[in-house]
Write a structure and sequence with these properties.
Layout (H helix, E strand, L loop, with lengths): L4 H6 L3 E3 L7 H20 L16 H22 L2 E3 L2 H14 L5 H10 L3 H19 L3 H23 L1
Antiparallel strand pairs: 1-2
């Protein structure tokens, strides 16, 4: 049975915390650092000798993981702007869906944020897909699968973090 936003609130995996609002920009900075890490890892194969890495070193799984965390942390940023703190990945995704997709009535503060962000259902679903990709990359031992995930996840991460920062 899929968990509802209310279930996550009831179990204190997401909760109202107005003091977190001032951390929104810090979350975006952290997300941007993860994007930089993702890009650095993408280039590491060109510098294996310089970095004294084993020839069979493969950074693809960490490219996917860095991309996912960039997206996840940028999602925490937008929740922080709303005065919410999440301590669970699934709760964060459910909260984005709740605040930006399902609600038809928003308070003025939510409308202002919604107008700036213009988040839509497809972008929220994208974060959920990236979470799945991160798990596949992290636990899969098939290099080709991980390489393919890394390639298209990089593009998705840039797009998602840019949208959250808007």
């Amino acid at each position: 049975m899929p968990r509802t936003f209310e279930w996550f609130v009831k179990n204190k995996l997401i909760f109202k915390d107005n003091s977190i609002r001032n951390l929104s920009n810090d979350y975006i900075k952290k997300a941007r650092n993860n994007i930089v890490t993702m890009e650095l890892l993408s280039k590491v194969t060109n510098f294996k000798e310089t970095l004294e890495l084993p020839q069979d070193y493969d950074a693809d799984e960490w490219i996917v993981i860095s991309a996912y965390y960039a997206m996840y942390i940028s999602a925490l940023s937008i929740l922080a702007k709303l005065g919410y703190k999440s301590s669970n990945h699934s709760a964060t995704i459910k909260a984005l869906e709740e605040f930006f997709v399902r609600k038809n009535l928003f308070g003025k503060e939510y409308l202002d944020i919604l107008e700036k962000v213009k988040i839509n259902k497809e972008e929220i679903e994208e974060l959920s897909k990236i979470k799945d990709r991160r798990e596949i990359a992290q636990y899969s031992v098939t290099k080709e699968t991980t390489k393919n995930l890394a390639e298209y996840t990089k593009k998705d991460a840039h797009k998602f973090v840019d949208k959250m920062e808007e």
